[in-house]
Design brief:
Elements: H1 7-18, H2 21-29, E1 33-39, E2 48-53, E3 58-61, E4 71-76, H3 77-84, H4 90-95, E5 100-103, H5 105-109
Parallel strand pairs: 1-4
Antiparallel strand pairs: 1-2, 2-3, 4-5
Length: 122
């Protein structure tokens, strides 16, 4: 039974965002594939994976299956929302151990709050 995450709603918004002009700009500008593993409480436990594919412009639940993502991030649910909404700087989060990153660091650096639609209300 998958846990309900607060991040689920953001990923839903992200799916819609990908079909907008702003979303299409992102795919042009970034052209990378990210896998995001979100844990309810503790990184590495009961994680739910999402793929944010900024090559094809899609967001889907589950691990990436076409080879390897450019970068993989692991967050807790709360920290992911903080980073995505711009409340927490990704670099600082990384230094504090709030984000684990695998894959290309240059790809990881392009993963910024600008990717995400601005939350109307959290």
């Amino acid at each position: 039974m998958a846990t309900q995450l607060k991040s689920d709603a953001l990923m839903e918004q992200m799916k819609l965002h990908m079909s907008t002009d702003a979303g299409k700009e992102l795919t042009k500008k970034i052209g990378l594939v990210y896998q995001i593993n979100i844990a309810p409480k503790k990184i590495g436990f009961n994680e739910k994976s999402f793929v944010v594919d900024l090559k094809k412009g899609e967001v889907k639940e589950g691990a990436y299956e076409d080879g390897k993502p450019d970068a993989t991030f692991s967050f807790t649910d709360d920290d992911f929302l903080k980073v995505a909404s711009g409340k927490m700087n990704p670099q600082i989060a990384f230094m504090r151990g709030a984000i684990k990153i695998k894959g290309s660091i240059s790809a990881a650096q392009k993963f910024t709050p600008d990717i995400f639609p601005k939350p109307s209300k959290m």
